[in-house]
Amino acid sequence: MRVLVTGAAGYVGYAVGRRLVAAGHEVDGLIRHPDQGLPPGVRPLVCDLLDRPALEAVLREPYDAVCHLAALTRVRESFAEPLRFFEVNVQGTVNLLGLLAPGTRMVYGSTAAVYGTPEWQPIHEDQTPAPTSPYGASKLAAEQAVRFHARTGAIGAVVLRTFNVAGSVDGRGDPDPTRLIPKALAVAAGRAPHLEINGDGGAVREYVHVDDLAEAHVLALDAARPGEDRVYNVGSGIGVSVRDVVAAVEKVTGRRVPTVHRPPRPEPPLLISDATAVRHDLGWRPRRSELPQIIADAWAALTRANG
After folding, report:
1. How far apart are CA 246 and CA 195, in angstroms?
2. Per its UniProt record, what Pfam families does this chain match (predicted)?
3. What local confidence, expressed as pLDDT, does residue 121 receive?
4. β-pairing verdict for 155-162 and 164-166
5. Is the dihedral of CA 98, 73, 221, 226 positive or negative?
6. How far apart are CA 247 and CA 256, in angstroms?
7. To pair with 178 at 20 to 30 A between CA atoms, which of 33, 101, 227, 302?
8. Which of 63, 108, 115, 135 is catalytic?
9. Which pLDDT tens digit goes with each residue over 130-180?
10. In the annotation, is 108 catalytic?
C-alpha cells in the first residue's frame, strides 16, 4: 500500500515508518522541517497539517492508508496552552480527514489519557472516557472526529490508545525528558544529580516498547475497513512501580540512581491496560516490552548519543 505517516520524524512516527517499510509498503513521511530525520526508505514531505492549501497539494495524489501520529503530547504543557493543543490535535486531524480519498484506511495514534481517572482496573476499551487534561480531551475529540467520519463510509479507521511508550529503535530514544525512564537514565548517565519521586514511589504503571507499538500500527492498517471504526488499547499489561523502574535502571546500567522523595501529590495508584482485544483481533503480541529490554534499548540509545 501507499501509506502516509504524519509526524513521521517523531518518536513513534519514526518507528512506525520503519516498520511499514520493512513490511513492503511505499511510505511517505509528513514532517514540518526539512532537516528532520526519517528512516531509510521513507520519502520526506514538508507540510504543516494546519496549512490546508499545502496539505491539499500533498494529498492531490491519493494514499491507500494514513497513520496519523502528528500531535502535541505533553500533558503539563496542555494546561498552560489548551487552545494550542486543540488547534493542533483536533483541527489538524479535521483538515487531514477532509482531504482523504474515499476508502482510505486510517490508523489514529491516540492515548490512554482519554480515560482520565479510571473506574476500574485493568482499563478496558468499554470504559467511558473522561479525560482530566486538555491534552487528553483534545485527543478524545480527534478520536471522535475520526470515528464519526468513518461511520459515513468515507474511510476505515482503527484508533490505538497507547499507554506509556519507551525503549528505542535505530538508536533513537524517547526525546521527552519529563518521562520517568528518560529521567532515571539521565541520572544514571550523570546528567542530573538525582531522581525526584512523588511520595513513596509505589505508583504502578506499564510500558510498551516503541517497536512493539509500531508493529501494532502495521497490523491495524491491514484491519481497517471502510465504514468501520475500531478502538484498541495497546499496552503490555505488565505493571511496574516507580521503585521497580529505578531498580531496573540501576541493574541494567550498573550505575546508582539517587532518589529524592517529595511529598505525595494526587495521582492514580494503578494504571494498567486490558489489551485482550488487540491481541485477539489483530494477533498483536508485545515482543520487546519487558522492562529490562526497554531500559537496555533506551540506555544504548542514550550512550550512543553521548558518543
Report:
1. 9
2. Epimerase
3. 92
4. unpaired
5. negative
6. 9
7. 33
8. 135
9. 999 999 999 999 999 999 999 999 999 999 999 999 999 999 999 998 999
10. no
The rounded distance, in Å, linking the Cα atoms of 215 and 208 is 11
Strand 164-166 relative to strand 65-68: parallel, antiparallel, unpaired?
unpaired
What distances in angstroms separate CA 174 from CA 114, 171, 186, 294, one per listed residue? 21, 10, 12, 11
Helix (H), strand (E), coil (C) string for the chain:
CEEEEECCCCHHHHHHHHHHHHCCCEEEEEECCCCCCCCCCEEEEECCCCCHHHHHHHCCCCCCEEEECCCCCCHHHHHHCHHHHHHHHHHHHHHHHCCCCCCEEEEEEEEHHHHCCCCCCCECCCCCCCCCCHHHHHHHHHHHHHHHHHCCCCEEEEEEEECEEECCECCECCCCCCCHHHHHHHHHCCCCCCEEEECCCCCEECEEEHHHHHHHHHHHHHHCCCCCEEEEEECCCCCEEHHHHHHHHHHHHCCCCCEEEECCCCCCCECCECCHHHHHHHCCCCCCCCHHHHHHHHHHHHHHHCC
Average pLDDT over the chain reads: 95
- Confidence check: pLDDT of 307 > 70: no
Q: How many CB atoms lie within 10 A of CB 76?
A: 9
- Whether 306 shows a pLDDT value over 70: the answer reads no
Place of cell 542514550: 302
Rounded Cα distance between 109 and 208, Å, is 14
